[in-house]
Amino acid sequence: MLSINSQNGYSVARCFLLWSLMPLITAKGNDVESPTKIFDADQPSSESQLDLRDVVFVIQSQRNSFHVRQAEKLRKDLLLQTQALQESPPVILLLHTLSDNEGDWSILPLLPDLSSQFGKNSSWIMFLEEDTRVKLEKLHEVLKTFDRRKEWFLGKPLHDEESTIIHHYAFSENPAAFQYPDFSAGWALSIPLVNRLTSKIEEEPLKSDFTIDLKHEVALYIWEDGKGPRLKGVPELCTIPEHNPRAQYCATTVSSQSPLCGQPVKSDNIFIAVKTCKKFHSDRVPVVKKTWGKQASLLEYYSDYADPSIPTINLGVPNTERGHCGKTFAILRRFLSSHVPNTDWLLIVDDDTLISLPRLQALLSCYDFSEPVCLGERYGYGLGQGGYSYITGGGGMVFSREAVVQLLASGCKCYSNDAPDDMVLGMCLNALRVPVTHSPLFHQARPEDYAKEFLAHQTPISFHKHWNIDPIAVFNKWLKNDKHTEGLEKSTKDEL
User: Fold this and answer.
1) Can you tell me the mean pLDDT for 335-343?
2) Which residue intervals define the domain Fringe-like glycosyltransferase in the entry (predicted)?
3) Which residue from 388, 409, 446, 448 has the least number of CB within 10 angstroms?
4) CA 461 – CA 363 distance, rounded (Å)
């Protein structure tokens, strides 16, 4: 449950906000309302007006230190804008601080507690990603145009152009018929909708199932086979870069900078393990060698058959048709052994994964290798009922050395060689209370399986599967060196 109420009766959310406002209160002195007056929620706004304090912001933050800093920057920016507007500040919550429940990032388990805390004296719950940029005054004007007494689900609409595996082939006859929000633009639920969804959740507990694409699954839950509201597209919720001239019409934008927090991690500080098997040596391995494999400094192929012409290494684990847990744990043990160079980072990919290593090098500059970092595209299992998160293997799994040390030291192991390796690792990390860190730049599926508008504002790092595509053409279009990666390669070479 969401840990909002503390023993002395004050909400943790309000106390946190009071603490965050102290520099602003001090700066304005007697011109700032007292905390008691700021948080007087017994006097709701009239129906004809909407105060900023009627909006509760939830930043979809993560526990990794880099993401905490990103969320704090966004929170600080919102508070500074509030000060400039001389408005009473809204409540701003960082999702990762609300409770220890692993399922919080899937949003739906949070709704009953958000309803309990804010369901009577607020009007909107506005969700923001860490990279969302907000023009608070503009957003305020947009929200005022909607009758907050009604049920609203607001966002920037995305739709599928063809049925896709990541959405369980939903709406296969007309994929474009169903719209779901691009979380990067921010999305909002009116309090009447939050309250009704809470009643539904309390009457029917959330299913213990897979969470694969959260934005689509949240929209499906709200729509409820036509009994609930559809997503209402709001043109002012944008995903164009914040400094684009067209952004003047937007209430939200996205950061125009690709992730880079310093010098990119050197290529020889990333050890790459490619999982393959004998039957794919002749078709998948050549694709790796013709595309992203040329960018690697340290790479080994692990198979059920030692082929010196590639070369592949037989780890003594037979190939399995389902999961590859035995092989993956053998790779983890080898990574810490003297058989491979000592590096700070380990990347494990499938033989049909396509990846941009220069972009990965840039992204890893944002993370501290001395922390237990497990990075990739996050999925969930049973999040509504105490489940766990995991990094889906096809998009690539990135581990800091410290994460591998902690995993193996814990005694965690496969219950069978053919167990799903990514899910077993997720269970182990959950038991260790090591956070799984999500990046939307990793992709478990092909580019065709994602909405064009979703990919349009990304610099993707990986895609997965060769099914019904030309993998070399996909790599050249989506992941091959461009102006961004050429600059990264140059900076890396300058260091060496």
Assistant:
1) 97
2) 120-202, 264-469
3) 409
4) 9
DSSP bridge pairs for 128: 59
In the structure encoding, which two tokens stand for residue 446, read together? 């092909």
- For residue 130 the two structure tokens come to 């860490």
pLDDT tens for each residue of 406-431? 999 999 999 999 999 999 999 999 99
Domains parsed from the chain with CATH numbers: 52-254 (3.90.550), 267-481 (3.90.550.50)
pLDDT at res. 91: 97
269 token code pair: 């500080």
Q: How far apart are CA 436 and CA 273, in angstroms?
A: 20
Give the pLDDT score at 49. Answer: 79
What are 211's strand-pairing partners?
380
b/e for 180-209, b at 16 or more Cβ within 10 A? bbbbbbbbbbbbbbbbbbbebbeeeebeee
Please count the residues of the chain. 496
Strand partners, 5: 11
Say which range, 17-21, 100-104, 346-350, has the weakest mean pLDDT.
17-21
The answer to whether 56 touches 49, Cβ cutoff 8 Å, is no
Summarised one tens digit per residue, pLDDT across range 263-294 is 999 999 999 999 999 999 999 999 999 999 99
| Residue 200 structure tokens | 């539904």
Tokens standing for residue 217: 């699954």
> What DSSP letter does each residue of 120-170 carry, written as one string?
TT--EEEEE-TTEEE-HHHHHHHHTTS-TTS--EEE-EE--SS--GGGTTT
Alpha carbon 453 to chain centroid distance? 17
Neighbours of 374 (CB within 10 A): 25
Closest Cα to residue 466, out of 306, 317, 326, 280? Answer: 280
In sequence order, what DSSP letters do the residues of 18-85 get, joined into one string? HHHHHHHHHHHGGGSPPHHHHT-TTSPPPTT---GGGEEEEE---SSHHHHHHHHHHHHHHHHHHHHH
Of 64-78, 128-142, 256-270, where does mean pLDDT reach its minimum?
Answer: 256-270
So what's the pLDDT on residue 257? 67
pLDDT computed for residue 260 by the predictor: 83
**What are 329's two structure tokens?**
């744990």
Residues 6+ apart with CB under 8 A from 145: none
